[in-house]
Amino acid sequence: MDRILISACLLGRPVRYDGSGKRLADSRIDRWQAEGRLVPVCPELLGELTVPRPAAEIVGGSGEDVLAGTARVLAATGEDVTAAFLAGAEAALDLARKTGCGRALLIDRSPSCGSLSIYDGTFSGRRIVGSGVVAALLAAHGIDVYADHEIDRLAEAMANSPLREPYAG
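and the corresponding structure tokens:
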């Protein structure tokens, strides 16, 4: 069975930094959930951050740069939360591997889960092209990552192409 790692907030779970969810209302989500295909994850909670928590952004690059050690994740308060984001990313990757998720549907713009865009690190609301820490790590390990607004592309991929196995090494 194709299993999908999904941002828990997209299922309406109140795990976002402000204590809200951001439910993705789509019949395919409901069907996949009923079929047991969805594996919910909140990497920031896995990294032991709390709800609510200050907003955070990647400063100095993207998720790939955080993984490489050349960028940091900072909270709006100025606190460096890079270690929590890295720990959460590793835990999310471990969960994806243990549950057989070869694909991920993640909320875009998040410093963890963004796969197409993230905020620019100035806390001004400006977005840049780039990935969050989790999206970058999953993609680097062979997991196909889709943004929440790419559900049509995910559904097409599930219907038309065999699932490639994520890299286990």
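(Above: one complete record from the training split.) The mean pLDDT is 94.
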